[in-house]
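Whether sequence alone determines local backbone shape is best considered at the level of individual chains. For completeness, the protein is quoted in full, as a sequence line and a line of structure tokens:
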Amino acid sequence: MIITAIKQQERLKGRYSIYIDDKYAFSLSADALLDAKIAAGLAVSEPQLKAYKELSADDKAYSLALAYVVRRMRSEGELKDYFRRKGYEEALSEVLLARLSRLGLVDDAKFAEAWVRNRRLLKPVSKRRLLQELRQKHIASEIVEQVLKDAEADEVTVLKELIARKRKQLKYQDNLKLMQYLARQGFGYDDIKSALIDEE
């Protein structure tokens, strides 16, 4: 068997289709193609073809994982869930995670810090709500504790900002309704009470 052609794909510009004996055999990214030292005219044995096809599947998995983390920062737990949904073997998942970590694209501490910062920029959110969200993202307890400890000083400020914003609405002129709303947002009763006293 001979590699007769290597053609850039129309739809995925960074991938190349490899043809053996004038028939499509597999595809690789530009980096994987260079690493594998594949060129037109190269003779390929059956075991080599099998290895190239496995390389192609792993390379495609890496490209998909890369696209997934580039869209928005992901936690390691989210990536593991994604790999499970894709049906990847445990060994491949570990290799992909290691590659993405080396590139600095997977870091749970940075993810948690960014999550808290972004959530609080978009809308005042309680520490309890953030804790819940970070747990859903499978962030380790010690990272969550550290990140929320760093954000602790903001809790009172966040609560006061939210109260000021909600007071502009007619239905939240009533203290009871406002307190119920704030409790549903995850703020503690004592914090709510003291923030409302400070407001007077």
The chain is about 65% helix and 10% strand. The two ends are 84 Å apart (CA to CA). The domain at 3-102 is CATH 1.10.10.10 (Arc Repressor Mutant, subunit A). The first helix runs from residue 30 to 36.
